[in-house]
Amino acid sequence: METQISKKDKDRIEAGIQGKYTKVAKDPEGLFKYPTGKNGLEALKYNPVLIQALPSSVAASYCGVGNPFSIGPINNGEAVLDIGCGAGVDTLIAAMMTGPTGTAVGIDLTAEMLERAEKNLNLTDLKNVTFKKSSGEKLPFEDNSFDVVVSNGAINLIPDKTATLKEALRVLKPGGRLMIADQIMVGQLEKDLKARIDSWFQ
């Protein structure tokens, strides 16, 4: 499927995602079929101690389809990359888990989401977090840079998933962990490419 998507189609997908997630940056409530905000964190069984440690407005900006941290631990001193970080809630949680000797980096393509992530970071005392504008298809990091790569509901939106997964594996250190929570399609794939692209970011 990925080879069928032209640059024009990719531009349409990116524009649609930018439009939707500009709204999400302000308030995700009501824009998804699953719980968001603090209710979403609780429903997905995030560590309640970490939920309580988040300022209420930070927790309210959470938008994720699952809990990538349920797959395995984040250890003290580790370097974590969050692909498609959105408002940065998972990035901040990873930073709390890895502690002051570790680092957490979030990347996203939507400027408004990154702006919200920076505002959320400024509401905390965390000093080990950075955010960058980047696509998962081409990560701006050296090989073997991270102990853990996480992603929550983002890779399904990226047109070239193969490139994204290759990039994630490239930046992982030997023995590193890839922890993804995402949506999958159930049922028949829409045969019409235009229809698929039109519904890509719905």
Please explain how this structure is put together.
38% of the residues lie in helices and 16% in strands. It has one domain: Vaccinia Virus protein VP39 (Rossmann fold), CATH 3.40.50.150. The radius of gyration is 16 Å and the shape is globular. It is of the alpha/beta class. The chain has helices spanning 7-26, 37-43, 48-53, 56-60, 89-98, 111-122, 161-171, 193-198, and strands spanning 79-83, 103-108, 129-133, 146-152, 172-181. Strand 2, helix 6 (111-122) and strand 3 (129-133) form a beta-alpha-beta unit. 38% of the residues are buried. It is an enzyme of class 2 (transferase). Belongs to the methyltransferase superfamily. Arsenite methyltransferase family. This is Arsenite methyltransferase.
Gist?
By secondary structure, the protein is an alpha/beta fold. The protein is 38% helix and 16% strand.
Order of helices and strands: HHHHEHEHEEHEH
How would a crystallographer describe the biggest sheet?
A: 5 strands, parallel
CATH superfamily: Vaccinia Virus protein VP39
Structural class: alpha/beta
The count of DSSP E runs of length 2 or more, i.e. the number of strands, is 5
Tell me the name of the CATH class: Alpha Beta
Low-confidence stretches: none
Shape: globular
The rounded Rg comes to 16 Å
Indicate how many domains the architecture comprises.
1
**CATH fold description:** Rossmann fold
What fraction, in percent, of the residue positions are helical? Answer: 25-40%
**N/C terminus separation:** 19 Å
Strand order of the largest sheet: 3-2-1-4-5
SS field, number of helical segments: 8
CATH architecture: 3-Layer(aba) Sandwich
Percentage beta strand: 15-25%
Family: Belongs to the methyltransferase superfamily. Arsenite methyltransferase family.
Domain Methyltransferase: 75-195
Keywords: Menaquinone biosynthesis, S-adenosyl-L-methionine, Transferase
Organism: Desulfosarcina widdelii
